[in-house]
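Justification of computing resources. Each target in the renewal requires a structure prediction run like the one illustrated here; the chain below, 289 residues long, is used simply to show the kind of job we budget for.
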Amino acid sequence: MSRRGFLLFMAIGLAWGVPYFFLAVAGKDFSTPTVIFSRVTIGALILVPLAIKRGALRPALKAWPWVLSFAAIEMIGPWFLLTEAERHVPSGLAGLMIATVPIFGMLIAYFFQGDKTVRHPKTLAGLAIGFAGVVLLVGIDSLNGTFSPIYLLMLVLAAMGYAIAPAIANAKLREVPTVGVIGLSLSMVSVFYAIPALSALPGEIAAGPHLGAIGSLIGLGVISSALAFVMFFEFVKEVGSARATLVTYPNTAWALLLGIVFLHEPITLGLITGLPLVAIGSYLALRKH
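Resulting structure tokens:
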């Protein structure tokens, strides 16, 4: 992987690791539809004017069926499934299930895209080592509890969506300017969530949300939506859709590190042992053999 690819990998991991913190803060004062609507609307307000200025929106509009498919499979479906499932299962289990995204990504690459390199022993070893690192990071204790299998199914479907969407983008939207695709995608998601969000928003504003919650919505829109997705598309072009899904491994690590720094969470044995495994596994799996 090139230096540019490595920097993108680390930056995306951070941009998609910090939402755990933002969502925890914003979720105290805003409903799920409001949070999703706010983040995608803010992201769209940033990227759509930029896309228009660069002449990138018109090509995205011409490819709107594939853009809509990407938006539905990457954002509309998984964000709802993940948010609802996390109300009923431990966050550690949710994080672990989302960490299966690279496994689905490699299966899609092998069986549907004809990428035989993903079955290289080092790639497979990297997948296994990185997943073991995630297990240590979230901690076995966090997986205890009784819950309905339906929520596990919701998490699996979300993970599959996260794996399928990059493959669609890499196959059908590779030649479409990134800023146009993401700007239009965020706009589509905004329209989808507009009615439930705007119905709840007046009451939430009347209740007097904290500045931290409002700031978290802005952070979700600017960092975790607009910036992160633009970087992710560039990363897909750099390493391919299957390997790009490996960004889900450092997401958990970044989330835990941010918790230590800003929320004063403890440094655990799982963190000390899991981080190196995530790093080693990601390195092995991302290398082109």
